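ugh ok so i messed up the first submission bc i forgot one of the chains. this is the corrected input, ALL of the components this time, i swear. 1192 residues overall. if the numbers dont match what u have on ur side tell me asap before i send this to the collaborators (the ones from the other lab, u know who)
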Amino acid sequence: MQVYKAPLRDMRFVLHELHGSAELTALEGQGELSADLIDDVLEQAANFTETVLLPLNASGDLEGCHYENGVVRTPQGFRQAYDAFREAGWNAAASDPAYGGQGLPASVYKLVEEMICSSNLSFGLYPGLTHGAYLALRSHGSQELKDAWLPKMVEGRWSGTMCLTEPHCGTDLGLLRTRAIPQGDGSYSITGSKIFISAGEHDLTENIVHLVLARLPDAPKGIKGISLFLVPKFLQDADGNPGPRNGVSCSGIEHKMGIKASATCQINFDAAKGWLIGEPHKGMRAMFTMMNSERVSVGTQGLGVAEAAYQAAVAYARERLQGRSLAGAKYPDRPADPIIVHPDVRRMLMTARAYTEGCRALCGWVARALDEHELSPDQQIRTAAEDRVALMTPIVKALFTDLGFEVANLAVQTYGGHGYIREHGVEQYVRDARIAQIYEGTNGVQALDLVGRKMSSNFGRPLRSFFHPVLAFIDANLEDEALADFIGPLAKSFGTLQQATAHIAANGLRDPEEAGAAATDYLRLFGLVALGYMWARMAKIAVGKRETAGADAAFYEAKLVTARFYMERLLPQTGALWSAIRSGKASTMALGEDRF
Amino acid sequence: MQVYKAPLRDMRFVLHELHGSAELTALEGQGELSADLIDDVLEQAANFTETVLLPLNASGDLEGCHYENGVVRTPQGFRQAYDAFREAGWNAAASDPAYGGQGLPASVYKLVEEMICSSNLSFGLYPGLTHGAYLALRSHGSQELKDAWLPKMVEGRWSGTMCLTEPHCGTDLGLLRTRAIPQGDGSYSITGSKIFISAGEHDLTENIVHLVLARLPDAPKGIKGISLFLVPKFLQDADGNPGPRNGVSCSGIEHKMGIKASATCQINFDAAKGWLIGEPHKGMRAMFTMMNSERVSVGTQGLGVAEAAYQAAVAYARERLQGRSLAGAKYPDRPADPIIVHPDVRRMLMTARAYTEGCRALCGWVARALDEHELSPDQQIRTAAEDRVALMTPIVKALFTDLGFEVANLAVQTYGGHGYIREHGVEQYVRDARIAQIYEGTNGVQALDLVGRKMSSNFGRPLRSFFHPVLAFIDANLEDEALADFIGPLAKSFGTLQQATAHIAANGLRDPEEAGAAATDYLRLFGLVALGYMWARMAKIAVGKRETAGADAAFYEAKLVTARFYMERLLPQTGALWSAIRSGKASTMALGEDRF
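and heres the new structure output, hopefully the right one now
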């Protein structure tokens, strides 16, 4: 049996105390957002995910999706759960009120997303992909297209996909072959085959709106000749309801390691009718609107699975009796002590906890930037926020999913043999979490995005959106003795990050392969320092509040213990990463291709 | 399609060049062992594993084992493969000639085991468990029991198991409840339930010989009241053939994350007839004979999967075309370059390679000690070898399986989305490798064995079996400029290991929880230094041979590149581990159990 209770206390801490949710009311359309309203949303989401989505997580994994003659059926209960999800308004929660959305800011909705991912990652992909498609269409589509398609997508009656990958190309979309021929009436005829299309076909919605990358006849070669099209499963009839079937079919679903309740489809477009989104040959730009949002969401998937796995590990560590405490029996009346008394089990739980809470805090920081970029009335704030989102997106995506996988594995290890079998549901977390390191750009691609694009764009301006606040925080708290155990390690690792950044900037300019060879280690180094920054800030709040917090004092004490664990036990990885980076590309690149 | 070719060149290097196989002839019964004979065995094993076992690996995973009314069927083809395995003499290869074995030393047979694990981990468990049971019975059983049961086990006609775990106890066997009542005729009546019994029931052999831990009526409480019994599925008839069914039944098999073709059984003993192995209440000692051997074998499983996963990753990285080299197109005539040109892909391949070859070298070093302990005519050598085996067993088990899992995941990452689906068979490596970190004592338990038992036993004598040769090697080569890039990092990390050892010895003596909190980080630190020692020794050989090696020069050049990669990119982890160790237990232990 899987267990999960939304970590509402920690979520409120991140949102209200760490990132000051009161400031959100300064954003456009958020004037009435109050802490009470936010807490109410979080509680409703907790209730929904705990009671509706969680019970379908293991059964959905076991049953998987069914494919027959082009039709895909989701596992038992998914359809009812989706209807309930839609009726409760969750599809519309984070969308623009102009199209029927409720306009909840990302700062709040990312926490809802986390709960969805904790309770049922596979389920979350259906509305998740729709929201990504909504974003691309809203940002780049014509008003006519938006009016015709967005309201039903926001409502959740129709779902969305992103159709990028083809059998011979994923990362390198410049190779794609799907073609679009103008029909003279403003529409296009789309033909080609796509694979790995999440939610490409299913039985949850009346219609499916595919966003498809394809080439126009006059397209330049490579990545600069790709356009984005809206291609629905059913064309609309005169009343805007699903009408005739379009030339879109599903030829199969993948048998995957995990997320088995999410239909991963092969989709064929056979002279399917579609409409151009945005300008010809500028499809990648439009698709990136969707992809950037999706990348932060995929990071949230890592966080969500980590939280669920952590809770599972804690539950088992409290209940499983094996051996005695090394400090003498703690529960002499029982046949053995619960394994939570053992230092090595605690090492696993504390690691899981420190990563999970750290990622939640960092996610909140990035979500705030997403909101400010979108909704701030102040241009300067919007630009600064855009920089922070650009910089942190690959870090959130790759770091959170790597750590999510690590935490899921720590949970399995805590269970021992019982973690390896289906019964307790923890091995599912490992299998489910694994995909998040791969899709929406592998974590290696994220690292290249960080060192190759984000680091150098606008003369390093995005970097400053992280470096400046960290420096300011360190400077402001350097003299505070109560924080010395947190500021010291943060300052040291931040110095390492600065060195590594300068090293890669210099050497990467001279030889891009130097940056490439350093990329993954650098992203992890950066991410660990970012978590360190969050932990130091959280420690500062906890130090300030613990003595006056009354019944809540234990919460702040736990924050301090976990912050200390992070600084002492996890952040030192940064030194090893810097050593690896510093050694340069030579040993990575020297071996002849035929010698492997 | 899974691919695998036994790495015979590297195996010969490890056996003949690194560990000087010629010295094996000095061991009892090994006088006729020659390099030619060894190479012949390895080639036969390569052929068998590549052509018979590999083709059943993915199909066995897909089909899994079948359970119906107490009967377990292995997947299609396993029975024929097992018959062929037995007929080719592989069951008997590493066993005592006194019972029909071929007496192959561990130095050779561990390489055969590696090939079996690379090609089909699930299959390997059936003969693997039999060999473990053989070892315990041979070391501790009465001559009568040995004569009655060993020959058929050695031949592979009958298989073996180890029945330790019960639903409420795994690590803490002191809690076990299975009972053994003396029957007055030298036999015992065994009653109890065991779980997680690999090869507990199946259709590969005529009989199954269970080694069962149980309590005698007068047994002291806890771990000191456990005895070991031989309990066969079928009792022998007057001719020594399988006769009446014993009170042993299989009530189900587990649904696992991986190793699906290995039957993991719930076994009930219902007044089953059994015989005591060794002395009453000394069952743990006898079981540890089996378990220690199994632990090195489980380490070999990690190595075996790592090799297969590495080869899969290389094959895909050469064939998959995506993007262009950062140094400019390498294959301008193709639509894109193969992904092996990308530094981040090479990072994954080089990491996999450095770990895999390093583990193979270290496995050879430990296997040699296994052989010397068993077969050396010189008491002093036997004792030294026993120390090394004792010290290195938990390291081989935990480090190799952790790295095997890491490498399997690097392979999936190299494949991207194609790694997450069943088709290429690489996600199976992740699922299969995961169990090896858990069974035969979780890796956390291995770490506790290292710091709690191995470090302090005999006044630190086992530690010296590693420290002395490493020190001697460093001293002897410190001045060799050609080796500076290898000896320098080795010496530095070795110094760190010495500091960490002294730290844990001192603090662990004062407070065992200090040692417990440091254990896992210390084991990894130790293991990485041990691999560093192997890489430095391999580099020394390569430096000596590369210029005169002719066609083989490229092999030695590759060794040097990989050694350098290991020293520069992987060994620096040791610094971070030492930082974590040094911080002590406080932050790990401070949080109240109810605060998690």
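quick check: Residues 443-587 of chain A form one domain. that seems consistent at least. The first strand of chain A starts at residue 66 and ends at 68.
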